[in-house]
Design goal:
The complex is a heterotrimer of chains A (278), B (324) and C (534). By secondary structure, chain A is an all-alpha fold. Chain A is built from 10 helices and no strands. Chain C has helices spanning 2-26, 53-59, 111-125, 129-133, 177-181, 238-247, 260-266, 300-308, 312-319, 350-359, 382-397, 409-418, 435-438, 440-443, 463-474, 479-495; strands at residues 33-38, 67-70, 75-78, 81-86, 92-97, 136-143, 146-151, 200-206, 210-215, 229-234, 252-253, 272-275, 284-290, 324-326, 371-376, 400-404, 424-430, 498-504, 508-511, 514-515, 532-533.
């Protein structure tokens, strides 16, 4: 308990991060409860197309007469779901590979690092685009593709942490006691290496959301769901007559990503007090 | 002499990576449902199964996989990236046509981003903790969180639709037949919005990095020495601190190349800029997988080359690295 | 008396002035450039490489065929052939070719070129080559100005085959021996650097930017073409194309080159003309193709219910921005000869649809859903995505839960035509000038062939339909043939192997300063030698 209290005390010092945390919770609430409280299908044609906001509909209608507010609420779910899931998967893969590479060193390290660098060389967004195009866009193929291009940075970070920790006394001690490698990695080193990984993971959610919106904008979204990037993509060709159709979902992305970034920095300050930014 | 060996060594390290990328490309190509013969048949709107089989034989698609792979590698060596199924032209030609426009865009964006970022970073560092510093930091944060394609769209709405100051897309005014200086100016005018959109994200990054870098450098010994020697604050900032602080930014700029390529897909689509990124979008519309994979390969190679250049520049700036 | 005389003089003078002005306004002006735009850029300048619209729009300016056509029904008139005779049994067609026609490179045009083009180029490689010339047993060239086609069974639309886009006459000397023997016709050099007999020849092709055609000074029609130049501008962005047309930088946007929303907006501007004329003979038709192999889609009541749940008028208005009209069956309403004008629009009745599904034995179950279906759609662009979304919603309202799959073209073709692994998909075809060309191949049971694209993927087997189509394919136009078409339209409407949706309009938009564009039902694919600009 005291661990968390100390953490919160440190986190609280960054007021922007605290505000951002509230915003994020709000957005999560909207994502979860919004479609329940406002049960309009974002694909339903509810009225005449191209209606501006603040008339019959709070945020207006899009090119096919669909409710933009409904799109926003459902889009929150999709974007957050894909963002979080992609980040979780990428972290799982990255930590796994990085831990093995960092702990064992030698040829395992060499091999795994070669693979990691390989993925770091290929431009990540281009690869994501190609992967989704090949596997046909669905929520899962998109999540998978984003995860594939995101795990290398986590792997590198994890490896660095494990290299730093593997020669520490507590590890040497554990080994002397005959603890199996698996336990050392999972129960000894990993908890200590976690703080920077958590920070990177959280920031990765933001990047994943940006990537997903980029993919959707290019037309690579699951045709059965509405996401924010999809809404902007639909509005691309009617910018002259209906700029709000693109503006509104973009603002949502901006706020969400900004909030996540600030929270991530707050976490960084709170979890890694040694690495204080000036 | 050392430089030459350095380059040779790095090139050798790079070769297996290129091979791996080629293999991955080939694998992805196999994973795609439907092949070139299918697509051509579909375009014709009416093809008998016999005709499709014949086309498959023409394209060599009926040979065993490993044979196809070696043929594929052989083609790559001769810089043949295959033929676009949809456009019926060599992928290499299509890419080479569009590459200059993208290079122009990316270079401009990078130069602007570095210049502006460095300027803002230095300003923020000089006035660390005060009003300007906070403003710059906040702006940087907001820009960093903005989707680039959305930013581009909003800039179009503002500067093209509302104010009619700048063109909303394309690389030059169509049908104007300009040449020479007027053409250059026309292109420059069209370049403003896309380069700004693409570069703004990096301005934020470089500004923060430059700021942190400057502050760190200020605390180093040789700065104290310089002060002790009696140099003015200004000279210290611009000759000593600046040059050293610049290094990480330049390194990052080079490393961000791959990221920039990805961003150019979105920006070029928004601004109808006739470059490689736009080609990706067009290829996506028709799911021209041959073309997409060719672009993936070329952009990976470009990133590798960019990293190589960064390493060399780094080594040049910091002689300790090369002679290690 | 003098007053009346004065009035007469004024009236005459007035009439003369009007007449002169009118005559001047109608007088074609020689010279000038016509700029048009389309997307994507053509991949070649020959409809042999592919019959896709961008290519046809370019190739038909440099190549010609034996005949030209008039009117929406494409009545044949002399082209490269100055006259022709048809034997009474309709098995022999003799064409007398025009004298003194030259290729763009100066060499003379002869009957050998015609024989070579039809036999070695059009029939094997044009996507409709076999449909037109499959029954031709021999092509004889007794002299350089005569070509004789011998058929084994009569083909009612044979004379319609000689359109510039359908059977372009290409020079024998334009192909190398290598290209012919190595079966590399599609990749032949002439595909990129055309040599034709048409009113324009290729001057310059800057990829990604523009194609310039210049007047053929030796064109066989004296005094034509009027235009000095044709410029095809490549503008990948739809909004940019629309702006260019609006500002007058581009004179013509043919075949729905602009985004539908923009076309709707531009059609209201005073300096522009917007019309679906000029491409109506292509007969574009869009439908939902249904895989009838399994339940529930094997039940005709289910298919009819789906048809009744879709509001076609709204589809045209909202998704297609008014470009087109609801379809009434396998033959487009614009076909002046074969369309049954007594046909009523398809019914839109959601209640009845629900009732049909109940009767067919598919009651609403958990979540108000009767059953699930997967939907595919043609990856042709934004509107197709919107349409798929719309159909998904409409079917949801009658209890059919639809999951949409977004696949690339290659994958779509595999799924629909090779694997037959789909429930329903949007599909798009052209009727062309005769339903035997455009409509038959989807509905006869002998065209149920794995791997053949745009064939009968639904597994629709109706012996009467087969019989009627085969009968109509051999009869000449007349009451007996029309009777067959009438019955076919009725059966297909009733049985719904596909859900006929819309005749998508190909809208052409041009600046008022352009004249002489509309000559027949396929004007956009004509040589434009009679087009002039102010």
């Amino acid at each position: 308990m005291s661990g968390f209290a100390a953490f919160w005390r440190r986190y609280r010092r960054n007021r922007a991060a605290v505000a951002a945390a509230f915003v994020l919770i709000l957005i999560l609430a909207v994502a979860v409860a919004g479609p329940l409280l406002y049960p309009v299908d974002p694909f339903d044609m509810v009225g005449r197309p191209f209606q501006p906001p603040l008339q019959r509909f709070l945020l207006g209608t899009d090119v096919a007469g669909r409710d933009i507010l409904a799109g926003l609420l459902h889009g929150a779910r999709v974007s957050l779901f894909i963002g979080v899931l992609a980040s979780v998967v990428a972290t799982a893969i990255g930590v796994g590979i990085g831990a093995l590479a960092g702990y064992y060193g030698g040829w395992i390290d060499n091999l795994l690092m070669r693979i990691t660098e390989f993925f770091l060389t290929i431009p990540s967004f281009v690869l994501a685009v190609v992967l989704v195009a090949i596997f046909s866009p669905t929520v899962f193929s998109i999540t998978f593709s984003i995860a594939i291009v995101s795990w290398p940075s986590v792997a590198r970070l994890t490896r660095g942490e494990f290299i730093a920790h593997r020669d520490r006394e507590y590890v040497l001690g554990a080994r002397a006691l005959g603890m199996p490698d698996r336990e050392i990695i999972l129960l000894q080193i990993l908890p200590n290496a976690l703080p920077p990984i958590i920070v990177v993971s959280s920031l990765m959610v933001a990047t994943a959301i940006l990537t997903e919106s980029g993919l959707s904008f290019l037309g690579l979204s699951d045709p059965n769901v509405v996401s924010w990037g999809y809404m902007i993509g639909v509005a691309r060709t009617v910018l002259r007559t209906a700029w709000w159709m693109a503006a509104i979902p973009g603002v949502m992305i901006l706020i969400t990503v900004l909030a996540i970034n600030l929270v991530g920095e707050g976490l960084n300050d709170a979890l890694n007090p040694r690495l204080r930014r000036r | 002499m050392n430089t030459a060996r350095f380059i040779a060594r790095r090139l050798l390290q790079v070769l297996p990576v290129v091979l791996a990328i080629a293999a991955m490309n080939f694998l992805l190509l196999q994973l795609a449902p439907g092949d070139a013969a299918d697509i051509l048949a579909g375009q014709m709107g009416h093809a008998s199964p016999e005709l499709v089989e014949q086309m498959r034989r023409d394209f060599g698609l009926d040979r065993p996989i490993y044979q196809q792979f070696f043929i594929y590698l052989g083609k790559l060596l001769s810089l043949n990236l295959g033929t676009s199924n949809i456009q019926q032209r060599p992928v290499t030609d299509l890419i080479m046509e569009r590459l200059p426009a993208t290079v122009l865009l990316m270079t401009t964006a990078t130069v602007v981003a570095v210049a502006l970022g460095v300027l803002l970073g230095v300003a923020a560092a000089r006035r660390s903790g005060r009003w300007l510093d906070s403003v710059i930091s906040v702006l940087a944060l907001v820009v960093y969180a903005t989707p680039a394609f959305w930013l581009g769209l909003m800039l179009i709405v503002l500067f093209s639709v509302y104010f009619d100051l700048l063109p909303s897309g394309g690389m030059m005014t169509i049908g104007s037949g300009k040449t020479g200086l007027t053409l250059a100016l026309d292109i420059a005018r069209h370049l403003v919005l896309p380069a700004t959109t693409l570069g703004l994200f990096y301005v934020a990054i470089y500004a923060r990095l430059m700021r942190a870098s400057m502050l760190e450098v200020y605390n180093l010994d040789f700065i104290t020495t310089a002060r002790a020697k009696g140099l003015t604050e200004g000279r210290i900032a611009w000759t000593h601190a600046f040059r050293n602080a610049l290094l990480p930014v330049v390194t990052l700029a080079g490393v961000q190349f791959g990221h920039l390529l990805g961003g150019s897909i979105l920006v070029e689509t928004v601004f109808a800029w006739p470059g490689l990124g736009r080609l990706v979008f067009d290829a996506l519309l028709q799911r021209d997988l041959n073309l997409l994979l060719g672009i993936l390969f070329v952009s990976s190679v470009v990133v590798i080359l960019a990293n190589l250049i960064v390493d060399l520049t780094y080594g040049f700036l910091d002689p300790r690295i090369v002679h290690k | 008396m003098r007053r009346v005389k004065m009035r007469l003089v004024w009236a005459t003078a007035f009439a003369l002035a009007i007449g002169v002005t009118a005559a001047q306004a109608q007088q074609p002006k020689r010279g000038g450039t016509l700029t048009y735009t389309f997307h994507p850029e053509p991949v070649a300048i020959s409809t042999i490489a592919t019959t896709a619209v961008p290519v046809a729009l370019a190739a038909t300016k440099v190549y010609e065929s034996l005949l030209e056509y008039e009117g929406p029904g494409l009545e044949p008139k002399p082209g490269l052939a100055e006259s022709w005779t048809v034997s009474p049994d309709r098995l022999t067609y003799t064409f007398r070719l025009r004298d003194g026609v030259k290729w763009h490179d100066g060499k003379p045009f002869t009957s050998e070129d015609v024989k070579f083009s039809i036999e070695s180029i059009v029939r094997p490689f044009h996507s409709r080559g076999r449909t037109y010339f499959g029954e031709v047993t021999a092509i004889e060239t007794p002299d350089p100005r005569t070509v004789v086609f011998k058929l084994k069974t009569p083909v009612p639309y044979f004379l319609k085959a000689f359109q510039a886009g359908e059977s372009p006459i290409m020079p024998r000397h334009g192909f190398t021996e290598d290209e012919i023997s190595g079966n590399r016709i599609r990749q032949a050099k002439i595909m990129q650097q055309p040599i034709g007999t048409g009113p324009f020849k290729l001057k310059e092709w800057q990829r990604g930017s523009h194609i310039i055609f210049e007047r053929n000074p030796d064109y066989w029609k004296a005094g034509r073409p009027y235009l000095d130049q044709l410029v095809l501008r490549v503008l990948p962005d739809g909004a940019a194309r629309a702006i260019a047309v609006e500002k007058g930088e581009v004179d013509l946007a043919p075949m729905s080159a602009l985004p539908p929303a923009e076309m709707q907006r531009l059609s209201k501007l005073p300096n522009l003309v917007s019309s679906e004329q000029g491409s109506e003979a292509l007969g574009p038709l869009m439908w939902l193709e249904i895989n009838m192999r399994e339940k529930p889609l094997s039940d005709v009541r289910v298919r009819q219910a789906i048809s009744m749940a879709i509001d076609r008028e709204k589809l045209v208005d909202v998704i297609w921005y008014g470009n087109g009209k609801p379809s009434r069956g396998p033959i487009v309403s614009g076909n002046p000869v074969h369309f049954d004008k007594t046909l009523k629009p398809f019914e839109y009745n959601v209640q009845k649809a629900n009732r049909l599904l109940d009767e067919a034995g598919y009651p609403r179950a958990a979540g108000n859903v009767r059953f699930k279906l997967t939907q595919n759609f043609l990856p042709y662009g934004e509107e197709w995505v919107r349409q798929a979304e719309y159909i998904r919603q409409e079917l949801g309202k009658i209890g059919i839960q639809v999951e949409t799959q977004s696949v690339d073209m290659g994958g779509w073709l595999r799924r629909i035509y090779t694997d037959w692994n789909y429930d329903f998909t949007s599909n798009f075809t052209h009727n062309y000038v005769d339903p035997t060309i455009g409509a038959q191949r989807a509905f006869t049971s002998d065209n149920i062939r794995k791997g053949a694209s745009f064939s009968n993927s639904m597994d629709y087997r109706n012996p009467r339909v087969d019989e009627l189509f085969n009968k109509a394919a051999a009869l000449d136009d007349g009451p007996e043939r029309n009777q067959a078409w009438k019955e076919l339209q009725a059966i297909l409407r009733e049985e719904m192997p596909v859900i006929f949706l819309i005749e998508i309009g190909y809208t052409n938009i041009w600046n008022k300063r352009v004249h002489g564009l509309l000559t027949n039902g396929i004007s956009m694919y004509s040589g434009w030698d009679g087009v002039w600009v102010e």
